[in-house]
Design goal:
Layout: E1 2-5, E2 26-29, H1 38-42, E3 47-50, H2 57-60, E4 68-71, H3 81-86, E5 90-92, H4 99-114, H5 117-125, E6 149-153, H6 157-168, E7 172-176, E8 188-190, H7 193-199, E9 202-205, H8 219-224, E10 230-233, H9 242-250, E11 256-259, E12 279-281, H10 290-308
Parallel strand pairs: 1-2, 1-3, 3-4, 4-5, 6-7, 6-9, 7-8, 9-10, 10-11, 11-12
Helix pairs in contact: 4-6
Length: about 325
Amino acid sequence: MKIVILDGHAANPGDLSWERLEQVGTLTVYDRTPKEEAIERAKDADIILTNKVCLWKEELDQLPQLKYIGVTATGYNVVDVEEAHKRGIVITNVPAYSTESVVQTVFAHLFTVTNRTEHYAQEVREEQWVVSEDFCYWDTLLTELAGKTIGIVGLGNIGSRVAAVAHAFGMKVAAYTSKSADSLPDYITKLSLDDLFTHSDVITLHCPLTDSTHHLINRNTINQMKPSAIVINTGRGPLINEEDVAEALHEKRLQAYCADVLSEEPPKADNPLLECDNAFITPHIAWATHEARSRLVDVVINNVIAFVNGHPVNVV
């Protein structure tokens, strides 16, 4: 078996090992692969592992030997699944490997707004506390989470864990979900989307990107929110209309927007959110803790081994 990893650097920049794959085939690892080089690099592969390198019909037509595509992520929209299935190509993904890390990032973002820890650490470095007339020093609003309402859009693995952590902080938890109210923990109140937007102090997005959720957060839905609301997006960039959110931040119709994802990644320099003081953007790292990446690599390797042994798992 010839195994080719087209873009291994993001998941494993060198602190993890692909070594177990060498036990089942001849392994070639590329840190990154430009689109125009994908076919040449993968042309003789039986097994391809990809994260962001797309394998559409055009590519599949030129890869007659290909038997297996392992997506090194949960989402598999980089593969033309229908075309792959027509060719008998097995596709696998890695479900639920980063739940705890993403939940941690949600609250890291929330604390960035409510506690401003990084801001105050920098203020101390710049000796603002040294020259303070009082034993304490602050120049921003500091906010307690207990008693505030968090509205969670989507109650999958991540949304459910966010709900549990928020409850532990003493927050009131509301959710927009397809699950029945009777099936939810007693600390979660099921709301309509309109009511969730209207009543929540914090809104966090954990729904898939579909036609119905594209630009879910826009000028109209923002106008339903409290001006003090905080919106957090660790799901998909296009869940929000970035121009509308930037406008709302500038006009103080929204307190803060926190995100680990943008509509285009890396972003262009003219992305309107990058110049907003109350937009707190991290560079798509919620999934990237060492622990989560280690789980990811282990599952990717185990998926390949299971396929080679004739019993594929995590099949799309």
